[in-house]
Each structure stands twice: as structure tokens, then as C-alpha cells.
């Protein structure tokens, strides 16, 4: 898998995640499955979604960012 063909998460530490390293393929349906309280939501919402939002916000100028809903 090429570097830009996947989303790389390295050393994630959030709630139940303990320094995990994962490569998630882009342009594919990906399912996160596991036992209750294993960190699935922390990985998806607290790590990947938060970083995606940060990168998206970087693409806007400060003028536009100040006018976006929070």
C-alpha cells in the first residue's frame, strides 16, 4: 500500500487506545468491530474525525474560518 493510499494513525492514545498504529485504506469501506469498550469510537470520532476536521479547517483562510459555524 502506497503512503498516500491510506490514512496512517501512529501512537494514538485516547481513552482506551494505547499507542496503536494502523493504516486505513482510502476509497474503501472500512468496518471497525470489537468488544464493548475496546476503543472503536475513540479511534473513529476522537482521533480520525478530529484530525480530518483540523486538516479541513487549515484549507480555509482565517477570514472564512471566523465565519464558519462552530
From TrEMBL:
<protein>
    <recommendedName>
        <fullName>UvrABC system protein A</fullName>
    </recommendedName>
</protein>
<dbReference type="InterPro" id="IPR027417">
    <property type="entry name" value="P-loop_NTPase"/>
</dbReference>
<keyword id="KW-0227">DNA damage</keyword>
<keyword id="KW-0067">ATP-binding</keyword>
<keyword id="KW-0234">DNA repair</keyword>
<keyword id="KW-0228">DNA excision</keyword>
<keyword id="KW-0267">Excision nuclease</keyword>
<keyword id="KW-0547">Nucleotide-binding</keyword>
<keyword id="KW-0238">DNA-binding</keyword>
<keyword id="KW-0677">Repeat</keyword>
<comment type="similarity">
    <text>Belongs to the ABC transporter superfamily. UvrA family.</text>
</comment>
<keyword id="KW-0963">Cytoplasm</keyword>
